[in-house]
Specification:
- The chain is built from 14 helices and twelve strands.
- The strands form three sheets. Strands 1, 2, 3, 8, 9, 10, 11 and 12 form an eight-stranded antiparallel β-sheet that branches.
Length: about 325
């Protein structure tokens, strides 16, 4: 099957109003496809779902140990955070240890998604900084690696040693030659691969031995789910729902990955329409199918079989996974 498979359905009363479709792959520790929906060979941009791959050179180069990075900092290197104080305070502190400030970042300013942080800026009549960017932790990691490698300040240039190291790590762990890249929202290159390649990479993370760079990164994510995303976010809430046994990471345009160390499985999925709610519903359904996620946990029920309410809080419909995922 090369066409997208149904992922999520929107029902309004007895009427099927919308159907979201996509592609998904579950890989085992040998890199083989255990289950798939849609087209495993579809070429995709994993967007922020690849942040733990982009963080691999930070660890494998020795830069993380040289700077004595904590598990919190490793989690932030893999994060798409909300820009809350728990995120920005830690990134600012990280920059301080490098002798750098907000101006060293190349991710660009972003209004924080965290309501308290956004309201604080409004009340203070202040503009958001680059540290509020959801990718500022990843960029602090880039700056740390750059210090180790001795590169110039333009570390997001695709030809820069930092980004060449990221490409090498990406092609090694996906076991594919990337056909190209796009420039991500944070200005760093985001390399393409097949969906199978991305699931294979996540399975390699899941099966990595203790002490390996892959293991250190997914352990950090699982230890600090609040730093990987933030309150109210699917990554944070679903990781908590699974008691930190699974690492999750969303990406823009309907992407999602999961790393399941106990089962040595990796998941990658892409909602063809690029819709976040479809990707969240699909990842929840697949995790339930694999026995990793409780179908009745409140965090699950927000994304799978979730009631849709109107402005008077009257239930008008439901978001549920398509039968193909069950």
């Amino acid at each position: 099957m090369t066409q997208p498979s149904p992922f999520a359905e929107i029902w309004r009363g007895p009427i099927l109003e919308s159907v979201h479709s996509g592609h998904a792959v579950v890989c085992d520790d040998t890199g083989q496809i255990a289950q798939s929906w849609g087209d495993p060979s579809a070429v995709i941009l994993p967007r922020s779902s690849s942040k733990m791959i982009q963080a691999l050179p930070l660890v494998t180069s020795g830069a993380a140990d040289r700077m004595r990075l904590s598990t919190e900092q490793l989690a932030l290197a893999c994060a798409s955070h909300n820009g809350a104080a728990i995120h920005t305070d830690r990134v600012n502190s990280w920059l301080d240890t490098l002798g750098l400030d907000d101006a060293a970042l190349r991710c660009g300013p972003q209004e924080p998604d965290d309501r308290d942080a956004r309201n604080h800026l409004i009340r203070a009549d202040e503009a958001p900084c680059q540290v509020h960017n959801n990718c500022s932790g990843k960029h602090a990691g880039f700056l740390t690696l750059n210090r180790h490698l001795g590169g110039n300040s333009e570390y997001v240039d695709p030809a820069h040693p930092v980004q060449m190291a990221c490409l090498d790590a990406f092609e090694d762990i996906t076991e594919e030659t990337s056909p190209g890249y796009g420039i991500d929202g944070c200005s760093a290159p985001n390399h393409a691969c097949t969906l199978h390649g991305m699931a294979r990479a996540m399975a390699r993370f899941a099966a990595a031995p203790d002490g390996a760079a892959e293991t250190r990164l997914h352990q950090a994510m699982r230890l600090h789910p609040e730093l990987v995303a933030g309150e109210g976010r699917a990554c944070t809430e679903l990781m908590r729902a699974m008691d930190g046994k699974v690492a999750l990471k969303t990406g823009a345009e309907g992407f999602f990955i999961a790393i399941l160390p106990e089962q040595k499985l990796g998941i990658a999925l892409k909602a063809a329409c690029g819709t976040t709610r479809a990707a969240e519903c699909a990842i929840a359904a697949i995790l339930v199918k694999l026995g990793a996620l409780d179908p009745n946990h409140p965090a699950t029920l927000k994304r799978m079989n979730a009631p849709i309410t109107n402005r008077r809080e009257i239930v008008t419909g439901v978001l549920k996974p398509a039968a193909e995922l069950l």
